[in-house]
Amino acid sequence: MGSTMTLSKKISFGFGLILFIMLVLGGIATVNMISSKNSSEKLANMYVPEVEMSVNLETTYSNIIFEMRGYNQTLDDKYLQNCLSHVEKAKVQIKQIDELSIKYPQLVKLKELMIPLKDNFSNYEKAVHELEVVIKNVKDAEKILLDAGNVYVNVAQEFLDSQVVAMDKDIQEGKSADKLNERSIKIELMSQMIIIGYNIRLNRLVASNNQDMKLMKSLLPKFDDIKTRLEKIRKITFAELNIKQLNQIEKSANDYSNSVKNYIDNFEAMNKINEKRREAQTKFFEAVKTVSVAGMTAVKANSVESASDLSAASTTVIIGLILAMIIGIIAAIFITRSITRPIIASVESIAEANTQVVSASDQISSASQNLADSVAQQASSVEEISA
């Protein structure tokens, strides 16, 4: 086939072969680069936003937990407001993550985790609002405890002071021993009630500050002690003003006792809500962490894939250029030889023909010389004969 091809066809074949090699190499490199581009787009549009959003959500949720812990410990509404602010921020972030999972169905793991993630966050938010109601009840109970405690101590002290004054008057007036004994009993019993009241208030403050419901519950039997002493005083109290004071003392003691019970009930309810909140918190964190880990794994895998594609593309180009150079050299040698070989053969053929022509010319010249010599000899012979 090579011997029948014209020079232009041979040159065209050589350039065509090199162009074909370059096209193949370019195609392979392009495929690898497109694959790398796709991996980069996945990283930029899917996996990196997934990780970023999950980390931001985890940070916001940590702030929610911190503020809620402060609210539990101090009952300060400032912490609640901060917590609710972070809750709203987290809801926006969860919505963004959900939209990402819908936009890219390839994020299968994220799609699976959105249901438990949203459910547990909803449970947590519900627990926060339940806790808000319960803590409000606890704070209302605290206010009643403070008011009732003040009324109890102040009125009891007024009653005691009035009895001390009346005792001095009775002594001066020389009242009977029975009358003085009754007055002494009232002074003694009311003094005991005041001491019991102070102890209840002090231990209640300690129990509230330490959130010690065992200590708080231990206060309830002490109200029976107050009631017993109050009944004894009533039996020997006849002045209308003192009876009104005893009624106030009894009411304040009952209000205080009921508020202690209310405080305990709400605090126990708060503990139950906190248990549910912590359970939702743990499950939510697990879901967010799983999303984050899945995203990081995907980022790593796609980064490796992208690096592999780029490496393959560069390797292909380098190897391809080397092969193209080798094939180009071989093709150049082949084409050069296929071009020069006929020329050399033609030159040799011409040289050989030229040699034959020169040889033939020499022979003709020699023959002509011989013929001329022969003619001369014949002419000389003719002259001799003629003479």
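[next item in queue]
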Amino acid sequence: MKKVILATMLVFILIISSVTLFACDDLEQALNNLENDNNPANPVDPVNPVDPANPVEEEFIYEKDGESTIYFGSYPQSQEKDTTICAALNQKAGALPTAENKNGWTDYEYYCGGVVTSYMWYQDIEYNGAKYRGVYFTEYRPVAIDRDFTEWDSILDDDSLTEKYTSQSYFGFEKANVYWFKFEKIKWSILNTKDGNVLISSILSIDAQEYEPSTKNDEYEHNGGTGYANNYALSHIRKWLNYNFYSTAFSAKQKEIIQTIEVDNSIESYGTANTHWAGASNDKLICDNTNDKIFLLSFGEVETYYPQYADRAANGSDYAKSQGLFTLHYEDYLGGLSLDEDGMVSDTWWITRANNQVFYDGHWASEGREFTWYGIRPACWIKL
């Protein structure tokens, strides 16, 4: 009987000892876990484990470059000329597009002879950690939406004109070839600061677009309303800025800091250009104010933020030139303005008010709203 009691007691002691040992092991592990949880050098995330040696790169939102410029968003800009990279991109892009089959490319839906025609396409591709846009066209983009291909080709063949006026061909962009442009951070000028927000305008002309694809002089229905072709609220360029450009250039987090602002579309926004329209009917020139994220500066704002003519000159990106950006070679024509490495400067960039532009010498101009070759310099307010 004593032996049975002793054996039972021995088993009980062994069980208690084992539980104590296991408990100590669990406690030690728990303490280790707690220490890791509170030690930034040893992060523990059971859902999304992170390797401390390879942290996740923080998403780029913006980067100030001094007090007057800032990098924000990205857009195709510099032409990629490395033949190895271009060959790899061509292979990834696959078959070339045609009017009948886009083969994965996107049609720009540009005009020819007043009609949307399939002759120019693009495709965005990521390669080796970078993003590129491929551009392919079978015809040169006409200078205006109502011009046709043959008319534009005849202008290019006129040596007396191509000495000063340029096009895709001038910059070496030929038909039936694919050209690649790298997405790069957009550099902006900081024009104004208010309540923690800053007004910025792109330094380069980053694209080339028409103000409105129409030559009509009377009111007509377009873009969800009825108005004249100079009506900014109904214009193609406003839609392009707030849809095409906005969707392409900014990430979700960047869009969060872009402010929606009321854009002044009154006759007063014209600045000194207003005197030109003194006898004109205002309903052809102005419209209700608009609420936009991306917009173009008025000529009055240009005069405020760029008081010197020379400051208004703008070079164009390689990508903008591939779209047919109008450029004036005036190295001997007009000195003192900012020229690019080819001695070129963007002739004009669009502003909001009824088809006024800043001309190559910094003065205002008012040319056809149907022209496709003027540079685009977007503007917006962002919260820093």
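[queue empty]
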